[in-house]
Amino acid sequence: MHTIQINDDCYRVPESWDELTEKQLSYLVNLTQSDIPIEELKVHMMLYCLNAHVCRYRDIYRHQVKISIGTPGNKIPFRTHKKKYLLFPEEVNRLAELFNFLLMCEKDTEMKYHVHPELTVNPYRAFFCRFRKFRGPEDGLLDIRFEQFMHLQHYLDAMNLDPEQINHVLACLWHTSKTFNINRLEKDAS
Known about the structure:
Elements: E1 2-6, E2 9-13, H1 22-33, H2 38-50, E3 52-54, E4 65-72, E5 79-87, H3 89-96, E6 103-107, E7 111-115, E8 126-129, E9 132-135, H4 146-161, H5 166-173, H6 185-189
Antiparallel strand pairs: 1-2, 3-4, 4-5, 6-7, 8-9
Helix pairs in contact: 1-2, 2-3, 4-5
């Protein structure tokens, strides 16, 4: 975890994919569904991980941004102990640069950035969907069998041609039986 200091207060933000929580991953997925610029995505993630928001602009702030950071209460669902800071946009941008690990740059004829997950921790070991329980792999895919890996490779190649094959890719990793069964793959993918 990165430790950042604003005035005399210290806050911690994730420095790798493995340190993101389930809620932070869900928030990142929601951000990537919208068409926002890359820099704005990093600022939104920084604010979310700090449990902060930008306060309303007033003329007295001049060229500074007022940010309110609150710590979540232990037994109450809202933020307590709010602290407010005046930061310059350059400082906000420097803090957002800590989230560069989320992105990857492709250098072709034009610079393209996209979210590049390097997640080795599985935050969703099991989940329920349509009243069925799906079991997922261990961290780093250490418990998948060779047969499962071969089917996963096959469907990953097929997904490059047909994006609808993502259901089969996910069914290779998350399955309803205790162990992977190729005969149940079609049912799990539907």
